[in-house]
Amino acid sequence: MLSPVEHFPVLIIALSLLSAFTILVAGRINKKSCCFISIATILVQLLMAIFILNHVLTEGTIHYWLGGWMPPWGIEYLVDALNAYILVILLFLGLICAIHAKSSIEHELPEPQKVGTFYVIYQLFITGLCGITVTGDIFNMYVFLEILSLAAYALVASKGGIALRASFIYLIMGSIGACFFLMGIGFLYSVTGSLNIHDLSLLLPPLYGNKVVQAAFIFFIVGLGVKMAIFPLHTWLPEAHPAAPSPISAMLSGIMIMVGFYALIRVLFTLFPSYYNYGLILLILGLLSMTAANFLAYFQNDLKRLLAYSSIVNMGIIATGAGVAAYIISSVSEPLKAPPEAASLAMTGALLHILSHGVGKAMAFLGSGNIHGSIHTRELSKMGGIGRDMSFTGYSMSVGLLSLLGLPPLLGFWSKFLIIMSVALAIKSVGGVVLTVTFILLLFNVIYAAAYYLRVTKVLMIESGAVRTHEAPFPMVFAVSVFAVFCLIGGLFPISLIRLAGFAASAILGGV
Question: Which end of the chain is more exposed for a tag (fewer CB within 10 A), N or C?
Fold first, then answer.
């Protein structure tokens, strides 16, 4: 007999789908009700996710069989410490962005009467994110990935004009990525006859030398690499972020590409052995992403485009952390009952950085939306001193940017510190040129990124030149202030968050 909490994974999905339909109907009667229905729905989903996380940490993994069909015949929702952790983060970000959208979206949409449609698609967007996170079936993961992607294309295009071009580029790239992912699933199904991720992990070991399985491995990296905007598969992201409404930019950068990363590590670490050397692949992609995107970000005058390239940098940092963990494990010859300390530390840092980057970057994008709503520009050269007139927005954005920079005692410091320390430990225990080069490039990129984060902070808070203006409406100010407080308190008292990220890291590394 399942406990009530063990039904929550499927209820989170069902409630979100029902809410999308409810918003569609309610929007025809009273458009002002749409945002409140969405906010209330996501709040209930967040509370469910917190109960799920508590249950997983105290009672163990949740296995929910849809329709009572036992896997691998039926679809299984499987929630362990990793996806319970991701679920709480994405719903927390989704809730705050929905609150911000209450005021911002009315000004950003070219046709305010389509606010109801926006919230319908936004709720489907949340549905896709939750579905990818909780499912234990790889084809079901693809289905939710398509729901998420279709909603994202529509949300990016919602502003019209140049946003239509950005959305089209995103659609083309996203469709290519989805096709690669689907082909990888089809290839695995053709040799195993199963779609359940756990079942696949049991069936694949004798088939690791099979060319079809090896092709599937490559397809997964390419397909999900597009979704997580890793270099050189990132080209859609700098176009989509500036064009999208601010709450959507925040969600695309803060959590959508991170859910793509979650899907990738869930597939790689669960289905494929370390001798496929995906640790080295993740390291190369992560370091390339950091270096190339850092260089491009430095020369941007469009604030949202700068933040978009910064998202690719941080995606590279996260991929590097996971790559270090996988590389260390692949370098140990004897069978492991538990991952080495440096590998656990690297993955903990990567997962903590999902939280610190998600909160910091969402805050930066929402803050840029506040500024754009007041002075109608995204050009940094025209924002001199705007943070002094919009004090709540200015100080909150400064906290977010300094957290992304990695300044102690803010939350972003701890995630970067854990990843850097894990590489240093790995050099001491494993050694090798690869880890030494990783350490040098990682440190260089973390320091280099500080240049443009400090430049933006200086423009907002110290320089002059912006037209005099006033603070944004309360819901928009509230959203950035919540994120700022979270970055500060999370940085001052990081132990609980690090412990949560550690449990999540153990869930994905423990079976290696």
Answer: N
